[in-house]
Amino acid sequence: MDFSNLCFVVVVVVIGLLISAIDASIHIYDRDQFREVGNAYLLSGGSEGIAASRTTTPQGASSTIHDGRSYIRFDNITFWRGKSAADQHSKMAYTTGLIQVIIFEAADRDNIGGSPYGGQRSICCTPDLAKLEGCKQGEVIRVATATDSNWPVILNIQFTGNYLSTHLKHTEIYITKTGMYNLFFISCDPELSGLTMSGKTIWKNPNGYLPGRMAPLMKFYVIMSIAYAFVSLVWLSQYVRFWKDILQLQHCITVVIALGLFEMTLWYFEYARFNNTGTRPIVITTWVVTIGAIRRTFSRLLILSVSMGYGVVRPTLGGLTTKVMLIGITYFLASELLNITEYVGTINDVAGRARVFLVLPDAFLDTFLILWIFTSLSKTLEQLQEKRSSVKLDIYRKFSNALAVTVIVSVAWIGYEVYFKATDPFNERWQSGWIITAFWDILSFALLCVICYLWAPSQNSQRYAYSEEKGEEFDDEEVQSLNNGSPNGDISLVRR
Prior knowledge:
Number of helices: 11
Shape: elongated
Radius of gyration: 30 Å
Mean pLDDT: 82
């Protein structure tokens, strides 16, 4: 099987198998402080896409990871208030401070809070809102949904006497509807300034703890690992068969394939562990994103080196080696920082603001590399035309066409990604959000397949390596040798 057919088959299989993918995690709070928002003190407890439960098992029954149940569970939640706030009450007082836990779906966000005269929206009920909407002053404004009077969910926790702390008993909220769920801890009591909280909440999907947006990626990385393994086997068979004629460039391609296989496999095991435990170990995730940054950097340097004619029109990069290494190190650092911010310790289904700033240098370097690659490719094509090396020229034209298609598709996808995020500020389309991440891995894999096809190991590898040949005489010999006697004159880089 040649690499053109391999590329088409594997990419189609990857896309086909991923059409049918969904499926949360453990959020830990350690003396997290409430912040003042409008007329309320608020602490965000998390935001995740959760699929509806597939079973009617009672909430009190013992559960396993893959039991088909979805829920948000509160475990060892403790609130602390300041001593000055506690000292204002007697030891025998019954309720001396209210905290409310709010769970709502993103689609029901307008059911929390209100505005008395169309002005600024208030989270807590004010005297004017109490008259207009009948809410209870000093509590969060909640309007029941049209389909379920129990949603949004509100849990009340009271401080008693002059105690400094209060606890939320073990509680489990059963999820019966698929959606993007948000959790907030809110206090409307002005005396509870400086409120802090510790404990954890456990968010579970039917098939494990992975957040809904991330769950399909576990299946995706299984498929990508298989795809890379298949390419590795085909490439390795050619590599071993013609190892005496292997070029330096083909060694580099082998490294990229190995890094891709290693990265996809590590991502699967990282997501599988996350799904089973609900936690994301910093060390393991850091290793995974580092391997990914190395793979992306090496891939870009490989494309740049090929575009410069390394091993084809020049034996070395010469004075450009330092510049290539410098851009490689810079890109690796930018990519590493971006991915550490995006993945290490991240369990929410909402991207952080830090990523927006870190993606800029990464995007700038990618743009710079694209310009450098096409500039170098143009010069290489000119040199091959001057030498009238038709076979090498044909290979590079195919390579330049593949790169052009990749860039066009990338720009189009970036436009779609911007549109996708701009039109979904509350992440309500979280079920298809995984495609944004998966697309880039599929695209880079497809381009790698093209490179493997164009520079596949063969008994004639040295024929299209760098040499000092000039003129039509050598070129005719080169064409005849590379065609292997094909009656139609088709180029065959892999021995059939």
